[in-house]
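Z., the sequence and structure:
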Amino acid sequence: MSSLQTWNLRADFPIFQTGEVDNGLVYLDSGASAQKPQIVIDAVNNLYTNSYANIHRGVYKLSEDATRLYEGSREKVRHFLNARHSREIIFVKGTTEAINLLSYTLGQERVGAGDEILITHMEHHSNIVPWQLLCQRTGANLKVAPINDVGELDMEAFGDLLGPQTKLVSVAHVSNALGTINPVKEIVALAHAQGTPVILDGAQAVPHIPVDVQDLDCDFYVFSGHKLYAPTGIGVLYGKEDLLNNMPPYEGGGDMIESVTFEKTTYAQLPARFEAGTPNIAGAVGLGAAIDYLQSIGFATIEAHGQELKSYGNDLLASVPGLRQIGTAANKLALFSFVLEGIHPHDVGTFLAGDNVAVRTGHHCAQPVMERFQVPATTRASLGIYNNKADLEALVAAIGKLRKFFGK
């Protein structure tokens, strides 16, 4: 029996229901964006229905209520990541904005001509392009640690690339294209031995595995709410307080100031300094509700269920003739990227959609990974807490029909 009663959890997500009857949707694209449980939808609806006003400014009850909910969510994120202080939690639009913020603040302060920024070959474009832009602005060099044939980071090569010119390290906790879980604690220790701060992209990690930023000792950790069963347009940048305090503002505007004159502006303390303008209040409240929901299930249960589905999925896909998995690291999530001999991934995705099986096809914003494995694209099935073995069986059955259609 599954370690997680997924059909009970599936009932928590309205999109899987048609009235009281399951509509047969097999959703296998949680790596792109997860579906939302009713508790999150209700939290956002309740805010707009009963407690909405702008925050931090009003002295009337609605504003005080909205502020309490918004800042309450910040505290939930602090506890979720085990950060030391809630002022180390910055609300942003998502992972992409968080990394861009760091490239324009921390990066601009630390990186100059001839310096190096170290990433890996498995990064999402949002953890490549901002650093390329920083290199163009400063004359720095981007270094890339290689991955092996099963999609694991070559740690020996990573260590060799770390040197006195390495000013920043930015690495995915989990690869979005391969599902590989990187040895991030070891990465942090190696970088810190060189005096180099580390940014971890946790977008794919936080929905599946517990994260303790104090235990990891990472300097920054970033993630997006929409992959964590929360609304779109909300994300988190965690940073160690001393580093955040030494970073210049990213945007100017309301709420990030202490005082403004035409001659001089002084800036607010953390976290307000990095939250200019009216924030995504409802998104933050929804993120807090999503965290409450996941913690009520328990990450030990979530993680065990994911590993069970990974093993079951590997066995099922191994039985499909002509199917080759891309990314077979021993330590990975229940995320399956694959190619089918003689059938383009876009055709796979289109055909499977006809059977109500939703997968992702393409390069997954990780074109260097595709080049590394010499494929134009893959089909990716990425699982969430609402998935179960029946979903994987439906995937393989639909692939079987597809192969017959193409005469394979």
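The chain has a mean pLDDT of 95. The chain has two domains: 6-30+298-405, 42-295.

Let me know what you think.
H.
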